[in-house]
Design brief:
Elements (H helix, E strand, L loop, with lengths): L45 E10 L6 E11 L4 E5 L6 H8 L7 E6 L9 H11 E4 L11 H10 L5 H14 L15 H13 L5 E5 L7 H18 L2 E5 L11 E6 L2 E5 L30
Parallel strand pairs: 3-7, 3-8, 5-6, 6-7
Antiparallel strand pairs: 1-2, 1-4, 8-9
Helix pairs in contact: 3-4, 3-5, 4-5
Bound molecules: adenosine-5'-triphosphate and magnesium ion.
């Protein structure tokens, strides 16, 4: 291991186990269950019903999503796979409130974000979500440290504290020695790790990651996945990850496949057959299957 993939101590709400999850995967003794309200229920992290999205107008209009329905429970690690152009990034942008669906209903952490005006949607993103974009979206004129620090400053955190936190976050992705460099001086994989650090800066409840390991070698990819899944294990966050990288499939609780504008395959309860590229690689590194079996 090149660097230790553990989240900085300031991140965290204590060890938690999401409702309905398998206790075997949460071996802490001090587990609490944060996702249960007084009536014993919390909304899922994501609930989409028949959502549609297209681009362009008139005869040139292309419908990308044609009725996507899915539900992601709090604390799950869900991967989204599918061919290039199938709409994975579009779906992530809808869930992240960067765009709104043309049809259907979508709630994220219990909030119908399409009902919020753009400024409130931006507040919602800042306060609850962490986004790792496929093309990183780092600020080219800012150092790695300032890119992460900006995410904290936006939350009203003082310069002194944001510097300390950003430094710790960059350490957690193995980039302490590169903190002062701008993105143009960093490798693609280093930019990807800065983007991961920035996404975790706000202690998000839901992390949306678009190909977060695409530019990383196997060792760094594994380390990033340990960092992201630590977030779930220790803080009850939820992860939705778009990926083609079958080296990280063992980290998934559930894998959804998007094809032809719809979710066509899923494991988990009632999910049917596993996506073909997933079958056979879901064994955990120790050889055991992760939480769920395929099929109903
Ligand atoms: N803003 C946009 N305007 C017009 N077309 C768009 C826009 N965003 C996406 N598309 C189109 O929607 C389709 C789906 O794009 P999307 O980026 O969601 O695919 P993807 O599954 O993420 O692909 P990849 O695996 O290559 O990243 C593509 O045909 C793309 O050209
Ligand atoms: Mg994409």
């Amino acid at each position: 291991m090149l660097w230790s993939p553990s989240a900085p101590a300031f991140l965290g709400r204590g060890p938690v186990r999401p409702r309905g999850s398998d206790p075997a995967h949460f071996p802490h003794e001090t587990l609490v269950d944060p996702w249960v309200d007084d009536e014993g229920w919390m909304p899922p992290a994501v609930a989409a019903r028949e959502i549609g999205k297209g681009f362009g107008g008139g005869r040139g209009r292309a419908t990308v999503l044609k009725g996507v329905s899915l539900e992601i429970r709090r604390g799950e690690v869900v991967f989204l796979v599918g061919p290039s152009g199938s709409g994975k990034s579009t779906l992530l942008s809808l869930i992240g409130g960067i765009m709104t669906p043309d049809q259907g209903s979508l709630t994220v952490l219990g909030q119908d974000t399409s009902r919020l005006d753009p400024a409130r949607r931006a507040d919602f993103r800042r306060d609850h979500l962490g986004f790792i974009f496929q093309t990183f979206h780092l600020m080219p004129t800012l150092s790695a440290l300032d890119n992460v620090r900006l995410a904290l400053a936006m939350r009203g955190i003082s310069r002194r504290e944001s510097t300390a936190r950003a430094t710790a976050l960059l350490g957690s992705v193995g980039l302490s020695h590169r903190a002062g460099l701008r993105p143009g001086r960093l490798s693609t994989g280093e930019c990807q790790r800065v983007a991961v650090a920035r996404a975790l800066a706000g202690d998000p409840e839901l992390v949306l990651a678009d190909e977060p390991t695409a530019s990383l070698d196997a060792e760094n990819g594994q380390a990033i996945m340990h960092l992201l899944t630590d977030l779930v294990r220790t803080r009850g966050a939820t992860l939705l990850i778009v990926t083609h990288d079958n080296r990280i499939f063992p980290f998934a609780d559930r894998i959804l496949r998007l094809e032809g504008g719809r979710v066509v395959g899923s494991d988990g309860p009632g999910g049917g057959d596993p996506p073909e590229e997933v079958a056979g690689v879901m064994a955990a590194p120790d050889g055991r299957r992760r939480r769920r079996e395929w099929g109903p």
